[in-house]
Amino acid sequence: MIKILKNIVPVGILIAALIQWYGIGERTYHGWWMWYKFKDYGGGVPTDLSFEMTIITYLLSAILISSGYYMHRHGKLNKLCASINIIAVFMLLIGLGWLSILLASPFAVLVKR
What we know:
There is one protein chain. The protein has helices at residues 2-38, 51-74, 79-104; strands at 47-50, 108-111. The chain is mainly α and 113 residues long. The protein has a two-stranded parallel ribbon with strand order 1-2. α1 (2-38) runs antiparallel to α2 (51-74).
C-alpha cells in the first residue's frame, strides 16, 4: 500500500503543477489581452487576482514543494517517479516565480472579495 502511494504522489504533484500553470497562464494571457485591447484608450485594465486564491496558491504550492522535496530525499522512489517528482517540483517553483512576476507587473491587481 505504501509503495503504491509513493508512486501515485509524484503524479498528483505533477497534476497540481499543471493546474497551477494553467491558472496562472490564463490570468497572464487575460492581463496581456486587456492591456493590448485598451492600450490606445488611455491604458489597459489589469486582470483581477483574488487575494484569497493567491494566498492559497502560495501555501498549497509550498506544501507540495516541501512534500516533493521530502519524497525525493527520503522516499526511495524508482527512477521514473523520482524524475516526475523533480519535474513537478521545478514546475511548481517556476509557477510561483511566474505568479510573483505577474503580481509585480501592471497586468494584474489583487482584489479582496
